[in-house]
From TrEMBL:
This is PfkB domain protein. One of its GO terms (cellular component) is cytosol. It comes from Isosphaera pallida (strain ATCC 43644 / DSM 9630 / IS1B). The keyword Disulfide bond does not apply. It holds the Pfam family PfkB. InterPro entries: Carboh/pur_kinase_PfkB_CS, PfkB_dom, Ribokinase-like. Residues 25-275 form the Carbohydrate kinase PfkB domain.
Length: 302
């Protein structure tokens, strides 16, 4: 079934020990959309400026991503992020952020998009996330991401959103920040008390954790010998999860476990090159082969 995502589409300038790129296609909704499109049709809601390269839009459309909700702000400049990774590359050093068109982003869903049953609110202002959520008329599953900045500056809006969604995806540092708990199991349970039915905590190279009222489980990261650029890995992970869930409609415990395994595998492709370059060389059959390898590694049962 169709999947709706609202978030950022950006131009990224990134430096890692393996090289650098300038004005590469990035943004939370971009990585999410491309990753999810391996499994299911995706409808994208975001804003860009007139400076956004046509080739980037063509790249998304070639994957079947519906970009009719990609708003071009007249005279505006696209959101830009510049960052650097060093050492183990587990976290980025942000060197510059230019919000540009994001400062006035106020999305209204087309009627077709409002009927989408699976909704993902990628990392963006929780006030915008909540506005989009309330326009979704036939949602079966609604999940949101966030980041430290929103936890620190828009906590009330964030918690209001969490009372209206099914699931939260966030990283370990964000989980600890929002709950003031060091232990991630305790942090996850506190987040459940804040409203969502389940929480997925990303732990970078240490994998991920799922918690709900009835289930708690962890999955390791896919072992990688070399990481070129981790930008967008978390968004790709979420895209793989939601893409699988939307494609299968399987929302039981085993369905979430398999979805997170696919998300892990999809994210492992993303980090092998800058921007969407590795994804552009990836086919679903290759994802499925790596998934089977991951199954064998974990002894996941059919």
């Amino acid at each position: 079934m169709s999947l709706l995502v609202v978030g950022t589409v950006a131009l990224d300038t990134v430096e890692t020990p393996h090289g650098d790129v300038a004005d590469a296609l990035g943004g939370s909704a971009t990585f999410f959309s491309y990753a999810a499109s391996f499994f299911t049709p995706v409808r994208l809601i975001a804003v860009i400026g007139e400076d956004f390269p046509h080739a980037h839009r063509d790249l998304l459309e070639a994957r079947g991503v519906d970009t009719s909700g990609l708003i071009v702000q007249p005279g505006g400049r696209t959101f830009r992020w510049r960052g650097k990774y060093e050492g183990d590359m587990n976290s980025a050093q942000t060197l510059e952020t230019q919000l540009n068109v994001l400062t006035n982003f106020d999305p209204t869903l087309p009627e077709s998009h409002a009927q989408t049953p699976y909704v993902f609110l990628a990392n963006i202002d929780p006030n915008i996330q909540l506005k989009v959520l309330r326009q979704a008329k036939r949602k079966r599953l609604a999940v949101a991401d966030t980041m430290n900045f929103w936890i620190e500056t828009e906590r009330d809006a964030l918690l209001k959103l969490w009372r209206e969604i099914d699931g939260v995806v966030l990283n370990d540092g964000e989980a600890r920040l929002v709950t003031q708990e060091v232990n991630l199991v305790k942090a996850g349970r506190k987040i459940l008390d804040m409203g969502p039915r389940f929480v997925i905590i990303k732990k970078g190279e240490h994998g991920s954790m799922f918690l709900s009222a009835t289930d708690t489980f962890t999955l390791p990261a896919f072992p990688m010998s070399e990481v070129v650029d981790p930008t967008g890995a978390g968004d790709s992970f979420a895209g793989g999860i939601m893409g699988y869930l939307a494609a299968t409609g399987r929302l039981d415990s085993e369905g979430f476990k398999r979805a997170m395994a696919f998300g892990t595998v999809v994210a492992s492709f993303n980090v092998e090159d800058f921007s969407l370059r590795r994804f552009q060389r990836t086919e679903l059959a290759e994802i499925e082969r790596r998934f089977r390898h991951y199954q064998e590694m974990l002894a996941i049962q059919e």
